[in-house]
């Protein structure tokens, strides 16, 4: 199994902070090729596409899960997308958001009590689902059954159907739950990061397998 030196280093760092499960041990024990070394944020450097798109309602979670997860993933050398971090004056909102989603490998959706009040949250979630990205839900102070899109006239009938479909799909996707009054912020962030990294490794492995199969096809 081929593994980039950067990904090996990231997994070793995760192991130093988290429990040493058999799955993660197996992943990081792949020795990188000789004469290759990890150079800081190797995965981020020189690449426009992000690894992880973080979808959240800023008014609910801007001081909690989403920015904490972003900062933690950056420290691990990954390239996450968070609107408050990645967008700058002059950027076209939908162009930047849509390109971030289409270029990412994984979406993390941080659901909160008023998540469904945000058109932008619903648009992002729908695009992530439609583009067949893997989605990791974090239900923060809200139960999956409490998420629903209300027909209040703020979007068209077609958009309402699209958003409702995305929410229903997310509700039946296994994720993390978090109670901000009782839970540990560090635990939810590191647990989410572990899932993100394991998912990225699975995607990388599948890409390598697909590449090998394609290279073996006679022309």
Automatic annotation (TrEMBL):
Could you mention a single GO BP entry for this protein?
signal transduction
List, alphabetically, the InterPro entries matched: TIR_dom (IPR000157), Toll_tir_struct_dom_sf (IPR035897)
Q: Where is the TIR domain?
A: 48-203
Coiled-coil spans are none
Q: This chain belongs to which protein, by name?
A: TIR domain-containing protein
